[in-house]
Amino acid sequence: MVASKRTHVAVGVILNPDGQVFISRRHAHLHQGNKWEFPGGKVEAGEDVYQALCRELLEECNIQVKTAAPFTLISHDYPDKQVLLDVWLVTAFSGQPQQQEGQEWRWVARHELTAYPFPVANEIIIERLQDAPEMLGAKG
Ligand SMILES: Nc1nc2c([nH]c(=O)n2[C@@H]2O[C@H](COP(=O)(O)OP(=O)(O)OP(=O)(O)O)[C@@H](O)[C@H]2O)c(=O)[nH]1
Ligand SMILES: [Mg+2]
């Protein structure tokens, strides 16, 4: 039997000073296509998850992470893929975030996140983001 492989993914919940969160829409042809997501991507060999987070947010959003803290860890089995989402809360960054890969993107208030279709694995993230700001360890 071949051991299954779980993809380790660094995911950034970027919070701006107004308490809004940066989201973008996955391209149709990708896994979980057309769903909304938080920026991020696979941790590559030789990287730790924080390095992967910084690299992905620079590549995808053109920002430099200044302050980030682990938020939650989600292991989820899709029918076609197993993922480990290593989710970080990014509360300080330099640059103006913009999606760099042609994806639709926007800033949304935390309570508005429930109106967007996200991959099922994200449900617990969205739920936790409804907590009071002091619970998030961030302003807003
Ligand atoms: N980036 C991101 N990926 C997510 C989220 N939720 C979720 O289930 N995933 C899953 O995590 C996996 C890896 O994400 P990704 O496609 O962004 O990886 P990547 O940037 O390295 O892409 P690539 O190397 O395929 O171009 C995908 O299977 C995706 O469906 C999310 O909120 N953000
Ligand atoms: Mg990605």
TrEMBL record:
Broad class of enzyme this protein falls into: hydrolase
**Can you give the residue ranges of the Nudix hydrolase domain?**
5-133
Tell me what reaction this enzyme catalyses.
8-oxo-GTP + H2O = 8-oxo-GMP + diphosphate + H(+); 8-oxo-dGTP + H2O = 8-oxo-dGMP + diphosphate + H(+)
Q: Which residues bind Mg(2+)?
A: 40, 60
Please provide the record's keywords in A-Z order. Answer: DNA damage, DNA repair, DNA replication, Hydrolase, Magnesium, Metal-binding, Mutator protein
* Residue positions binding 8-oxo-dGTP: 26, 31, 37-40, 122
The record's InterPro entries line, in alphabetical order, gives: Mutator_MutT, MutT-like, MutY_C, Nudix_hydrolase, NUDIX_hydrolase-like_dom_sf, NUDIX_hydrolase_CS, NUDIX_hydrolase_dom
**GO BP annotations, alphabetical order:** DNA repair; DNA replication
Pfam families xref list: NUDIX_4 (PF14815)
Give EC number(s), comma-separated: 3.6.1.55
Asked whether the keyword DNA repair is assigned, the reply is yes
- Cofactor(s), names only, from the UniProt record: Mg(2+)
Annotated GO MF terms: 8-oxo-7,8-dihydrodeoxyguanosine triphosphate pyrophosphatase activity; 8-oxo-7,8-dihydroguanosine triphosphate pyrophosphatase activity; 8-oxo-dGDP phosphatase activity; 8-oxo-GDP phosphatase activity; metal ion binding
Q: Would I find DNA damage among this entry's keywords? A: yes
What protein family does this chain belong to? Belongs to the Nudix hydrolase family.
Q: State the protein's name.
A: 8-oxo-dGTP diphosphatase
Q: Which organism is it from?
A: Pseudidiomarina indica
